[in-house]
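Entry 14. Ran structure prediction on the chain below.
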Amino acid sequence: MAKAPSITRSRHKARNLAVQALYQWQITGQDRDDIVARFFTDQEMNETVTEYFEELVSQVSANVASIDAALSPLLDRPIKQLDPVECAVLRIGAYELEHRPDVPYRVVINEAIEAAKLFGAEESYKYINGVLDQLKGKYRAEEIELAKTS
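Output, structure tokens:
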């Protein structure tokens, strides 16, 4: 019997697919639902991957203005000038930091770094790390405090 994929591996796959889908959404301006539907057709996904992928793509795209407002003060240039891969990775990381307290901030940042290494420019992971490391304090102050005392 095949072993069921862990939630960690499934969410990792969902994030990587979401980076690709959000990249496509940013570049082409295609309808988000059409992009999601194509990924469901083209990719093999279990239920956890499907649910998390769909949440990330729909919620990041629906809340892009507030996500960008949170990121913008931490960037060294306007968000429109970011590499589209970096932009997608940062938006996913920002969304998870704010809306997914069940995912530890260290996991959010590490997953963003890994996605940047996989899809982004050679050194983009350093930039992603720096921005999300600053942003974590806005959304995860209590978790950071608890980590210091443990």
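The chain has a mean pLDDT of 93. Will compare against last week's run tomorrow.
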